Amino acid sequence: MLRRRIQWLTILLTCALGWMTSTASAQDKPVDVSVTVRADEPGPTINPNIYGQFAEHLGAGIYEGVWVGEDSDIPNTNGYRNDVIAALRDLKVPVVRWPGGCFADEYHWRDGIGPREKRPVKVNTHWGGVPETNAFGTHEFMTFAEMIGAKVYISGNVGSGTVQEMADWLEYLTSDTVSTLANERRKNGREKPWDVHFFGIGNETWGCGGNMRPEYYADLFRQYATYIKTPPGKRPKIIASGGHDDGTRWVEVLTTQVERDLDGISHHYYTIPSGVWEKKGNSTGFGEDEWISTLKNTMRIDEFIKNNVAILDKNDPEGKIGFYVDEWGTWYDPEPGREPGFLYQQNTLRDALVAAINLNIFHHHARRVHMTNIAQMVNVLQAMILTDGPRMALTPTYHVFHMYRPFQGATFLPTDDSTPRYTHGDVSVPAVSVSAARDSEGKIQLALANLDPNREAVVRTNLRGAQAKSASGRLLTAKQMDARNTVDEPENVKPTTLSAKRDGNAVVVKLPPKSVAVVQLQ
Ligand code: AHR
Q1: For the domain bounded by 30-43+413-521, which CATH number is listed?
Q2: Predicted TM-score of the model (pTM)
Q3: 153: CA distance to ligand 1 center in Å?
């Protein structure tokens, strides 16, 4: 009996040991991926505006984050933080969407012009119920955009505004006549009219922007768009408020019920680790379950874009209407001890992976995706920059946007890849996310993200229709899944040089676990 028991125990132990070694070796073994870049089949231009930002009057997004006022001890130029402006200039932000968001449908532009001490103080009912001083208004925003070299995307108020109010705002901004509104702009310090590149008619009109039905909004869109009058050649692209998540109805209704003035339809999708709004998950201190669920959830944008693009292709075969993902990014539970309405959250290596995955997906849809705006630029949700008093930290997301700069305006190149899957528990995603493009200097840019937090990926890339004599790149990774930068440790997560090996006409890149790389082949 005892002998039998010992035998069983030995078998069990051997099995357990075998399982452990096989798991350990499977984990250690790099993932092999082969990629073919079809350089001989160039696709559409990757619109630089895919790298757009969103800045709302929300928490410390504008006040503190961008605007501190001329009297602040924080080093500033005419009220704008020097450190933030320099970092954003370096990022080559192509376009900024402002003033909201939900805030836009309660914003009355006249509150934000004229002498600052005379501007009315309102309540920011959406975001924490805090006073809105209107110190940052039209002139401040337009100057800010000029300072960082970005185009402007203004969201007009449909929810609580009027057609007249919207029409007046456009006249105030763009008129070169001697109209009373144009002269008022001059009196307030701006002689020359501004260019307004994009104008949104409302925001989330299905929700905070008025709780409308798409059919009702389609009529409002037609009415509001009729009165957007600007000097010849200065008409902004007009963007309709569209749907969110897996919705397609807004695109269906707008493309069948609006015959003119429609340059783009907006869509919003936020990545939530749990997929449940009420209990989203934390921005730090998460385990591998939440790592993979976040990445899986963020990839859903691919299917959402495909479904909406299919409708656009059916109803707008000439391809005039763009799909504008003008709010996207991660959204976590509020940080303990902070005002929940300020949507301040930490930003970690996981956010860097989210950014890279989304940008790769947007590149693949460059034909219809004409703009995206990550939410939000500073101190709110998946921010580029987090400030703390006079100091700031660039987030891992900032670094991804920085590394991806050569993709702005580049020509998309299709790729085929053989990536295995990374599986954790019952969740599985492709281990490596890929996109490629030919930049304005003719170099091939390859963006890679290794989603697996445990295994290195060895990516062997072949070029079809091109030759690479050299390869070099930048890599972003860290030891911890939730590694982040703080004002005390601002360089915890930052890009390093990546070496790539040439092997015949192939280029071999070793991607550490949980990393993002951009490689230049020339
Ligand atoms: O980005 C935060 C909010 O999310 C925006 O104000 C709104 O449009 C969306 O619901």
Answers
A1: 2.60.40.1180
A2: 0.94
A3: 15
